[in-house]
């Protein structure tokens, strides 16, 4: 499918889904909003202070995770790679939870999440160097399990007051999103996407291998470092601000690959919109399925992503198997 045609489909779809999520269980009506007629002050306050920052955070988080997923899959030449599956999310969560338990603010937690995700990614890179795709995923799962165990140990040592906050945060949710977080993610999403998009030729060359990329004239080590840093920053920001929201970085790039092929320029053009649509839809479902109760968004994405991953893993088997 042509990228332009797909964008003309995805943009209205994302807009309609966002509008439906914004007005869900609200007394504000679409026609009234378009006509700018007077509305109850409480409804406007609900819309501006709770719904809009939550929606903006959800869309930005989806775009960040899918951009990071594209970068990680191209770097490791494996369509099964994803920030959550190879340990980036776990590393970011461990560092961010530690910062949160120490009373750090929004930006302190974000910085800790970035360095935690970066450390996990570098460890995976070290363990997965010169390995095939399946062993790379197994190395990532092992590191993710180790970091998850350390996170569990940290949680058991926390006092009750910090325990509740960290536990709820780890489930993944946009419920507590306020304007500072939403604006931070909304500013980071296009900047990180643009920085990754500038490397689309290098990401394409990496599909042929590092040696091929080097002989094509790319500075492999330098550009790899930049991609690694950008992927860790994207995942770290989302995890530190919204908790563990898995599989978006796997589903969005793979769906985009099925629609537009493996060209990184096309993938990076389409994947962020698909990721934003996935997280906005998951947030809408989290508020709708058990209303007035609310499910964590991370539960929704995991329920969708785990079967998707198993199907993708099965489809990646060699034919002779």
UniProtKB/TrEMBL annotation:
CDD domains assigned: TM_ABC_iron-siderophores_like
Family the entry assigns: Belongs to the binding-protein-dependent transport system permease family. FecCD subfamily.
Localisation per UniProt entry: Cell membrane
Pfam families: FecCD
PANTHER family to which the protein is assigned, alphabetical: ABC TRANSPORTER PERMEASE PROTEIN MJ0876-RELATED, FERRIC ENTEROBACTIN TRANSPORT SYSTEM PERMEASE PROTEIN
Keyword annotations from UniProtKB, A to Z: Cell membrane, Membrane, Transmembrane, Transmembrane helix, Transport
TM stretches of this protein: 106-124, 136-159, 179-197, 227-252, 295-313
Keyword Transmembrane: yes
Name by which UniProt lists this protein: Iron ABC transporter permease
Keyword Repeat: no
InterPro entries for this protein: ABC_BtuC-like, ABC_transptr_permease_BtuC
Matching Gene3D superfamilies: ABC transporter involved in vitamin B12 uptake, BtuC
Membrane topology value: Multi-pass membrane protein
Subcellular location, principal: membrane
């Amino acid at each position: 499918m042509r990228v332009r045609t797909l964008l003309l489909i995805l943009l209205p779809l994302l807009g309609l889904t966002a509008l439906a999520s914004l007005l869900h269980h609200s007394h504000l009506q679409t026609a009234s909003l378009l006509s700018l007629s007077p509305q109850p002050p409480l409804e406007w306050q609900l819309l501006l202070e709770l719904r809009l920052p939550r929606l903006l955070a959800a869309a930005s988080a989806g775009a960040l995770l899918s951009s990071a997923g594209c970068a990680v899959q191209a770097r490791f030449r494996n369509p099964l790679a994803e920030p959550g599956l190879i340990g980036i999310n776990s590393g970011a969560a461990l560092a961010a939870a530690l910062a949160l338990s120490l009373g750090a603010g929004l930006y302190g937690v974000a910085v800790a999440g970035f360095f935690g995700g970066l450390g996990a990614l570098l460890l995976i890179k070290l363990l997965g160097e010169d390995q095939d795709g399946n062993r790379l995923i197994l190395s990532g799962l092992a590191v993710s399990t180790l970091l998850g165990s350390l996170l569990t140990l940290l949680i058991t040592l926390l006092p009750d007051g910090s325990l509740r906050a960290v536990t709820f945060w780890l489930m993944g949710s946009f419920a507590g999103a306020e304007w500072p977080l939403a604006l931070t993610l909304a500013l980071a999403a296009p900047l990180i996407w643009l920085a990754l998009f500038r490397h689309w030729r290098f990401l394409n060359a990496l599909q042929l291998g590092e040696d091929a990329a080097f002989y094509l004239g790319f500075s492999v080590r330098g550009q790899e470092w930049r991609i690694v840093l950008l992927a860790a920053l994207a995942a770290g920001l989302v995890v530190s601000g919204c908790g563990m929201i898995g599989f978006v970085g796997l589903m969005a790039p793979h769906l985009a690959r099925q629609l537009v092929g493996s060209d990184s320029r096309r993938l990076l053009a389409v994947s962020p919109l698909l990721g934003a649509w996935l997280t906005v839809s998951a947030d809408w479902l989290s508020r709708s399925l058990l209303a007035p109760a609310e499910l964590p968004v991370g539960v929704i994405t995991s329920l969708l992503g785990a079967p998707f991953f198993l199907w993708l893993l099965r489809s990646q088997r060699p034919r002779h198997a």
